[in-house]
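Box 3.1. Reading complex inputs
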Amino acid sequence: MLQSQLFTKTLHKPPKEAESPSHKYLTQADFVDCLASGIFSLLPLGFRVHKKIENIIRQEMDSLGGQEVYLPSLQPKNLWMETGRWKTIEPPLFKLKDTHKKDLALGSTHEEVITDIVRKRIKSYKDLPFTLYQIQDKFRNELRATGGLLRVREFVMKDLYSFHSDFSDLDKYYHKVAKAYENIFKRCGINAIQVEASAGTIGGGESHEFMVLAKTGEDKVALCQKCNWAANLEIGKKYKVCPKCKGKLVVQNSIEVGHLFKLGVEYSKKMKANFTDKDGKEKPIVMGCYGIGLGRLMATVVEVRHDKKGIIWPKNISPFDVHLLALQPTNKKVVQFAENLYKTLQKNNIDILYDDRVVSPGIKLNDADLIGIPVRLVVSEKTQEKNAVEFKLRSQKKIKLIKKDKVVQELLR
RNA sequence: CGGGGCAUGGCCUAGUGGCUUAAGGCGCUGCCUUUGGGAGGCAGAGAUCCUGGGUUCAAAUCCCAGUGCCCCGACCA
């Protein structure tokens, strides 16, 4: 992609209302646009990252045997009355009326809808277990949106729902999902720890969150200094020392990037989602649900991966693989050299952003640091004479000179 | 929903009763020069000073109400 064609206008300074690093950089580098408090548009660079995260999640969900569906945001009141959440979940449930004055909710989560779909179809233990998931828009009437993309009112979420004939099968699957979540966060370049959590208005039994330690996080976790035990402070509060090994506990701020719930029969009982078991008895389906907010995950990566100059994207979710800069865009030899390299890399399936803009070198170098693509290639009069390019990783200071015919090899390494 | 802060061209800010015909930097348009860490010159465009009401001879500036944004708290899959 030619940067001169890219619909991205970086800002010289971050907007004054942005305080958290992710809010600052994602806005300054023009990945997102704030429409209203807690409501964001994803611009070309931001949407590229978002799609890469989505694909990583989709791969992991598919490998868990999840079948992808797409459920509606508009949901009738009666479903929410069945579980009693029409009242208990408000806020953050957005409510509205249609022209016939019928009450509707904008989905903040989809347990009711998915349980309804399942109860219409599943009658026998032979149909269990199975899992469904979606990557879809959620609406939450938050009392307060915070930290740019960290807590918003509309966002894309991956929600997976699993259905089992008994609790031990749920337990087994729950652990598999936890493992898949670990993979997802690792692939997104962040270190997330699994902590014991409260299930809140979702209800059910056991629950775990994946937390990323960060100063800007609005959650607090209690961490054992000795073993790997950790819990959300809302649970950890009741302990003075680690319940597992009596080790000392420390409290740190964190961002919740994923949540697992053992719903058990909480929803299936209320909504009469039953099946006939081997013994011929009718039983409620045992359920689990598992969520990840994509925008928050994207912002969290920025929270923990940035420096004074800008974002440092991990390879897997960077908007592009490589950022190529032609420092003197008026020098024909330099431009020819850069264009040639650009085409060669494209042929090798390297996703490349080529800064062909006629602007000064300082602007290009600063924009490259701000946008944060992991590999930067610089072509200038100096390097062109040597038939080479400068190779620099965004995460490191070291610059090395690489001969033109070795560039592809170096990038695919 | 309680507490606090902020609101001036697209962005960042100055101006805190009259010297304001609202200033500067960045950005934008045209021409010229320039090209290794946000380059220079010349010319130009661009502002309901958040909205409404009030005080005053006079309001971007003071007062009241509202709106929007940010932060803290409460709340929160």
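In summary: DSSP finds 13 helices and 23 strands in chain A.
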